[in-house]
Specification:
The protein is an all-alpha fold and about 100 residues long. It is built from 2 helices and no strands. The chain is elongated, with a radius of gyration of 19 Å.
Length: about 100
């Protein structure tokens, strides 16, 4: 049952964090630059500098927000179920261990 809970909580927390962080990033951009963020940074009509700064800023803010929210979700899971969520414990990274 607990792994089923994590299948909803983990991705759900990430999706919510991404949506909130995206909105916050846009508001910060507008307050700093006094102009809207680029609709599509890949558009050749968007200046390189603007596209790169937008990509770095939005990637950093969204990535950090997701990390914080997903870690808090894992803390909640551990308090609720007494163990780390599936895939977050030692050796749960999917790597194959070789024994000599």
């Amino acid at each position: 049952m607990s792994s089923i809970v994590w299948k909803f909580v983990g991705p759900g927390a990430g999706l919510i964090a991404t949506a909130v962080a995206g909105r916050v990033t846009k508001k910060i951009w507008v307050s700093v630059t006094k102009s809207p963020p680029p609709d599509n940074p890949e558009d050749p009509d968007v200046r390189w500098q603007e596209a790169v700064v937008w990509a770095v800023a939005s990637g950093a803010i969204i990535g950090l927000t997701r990390l914080l929210v997903e870690r808090q979700a894992a803390v909640w899971y551990r308090k609720s179920f007494g163990e780390l969520p599936p895939g977050l414990g030692r050796g749960d990274d999917g790597a194959v261990e070789e024994y000599s």
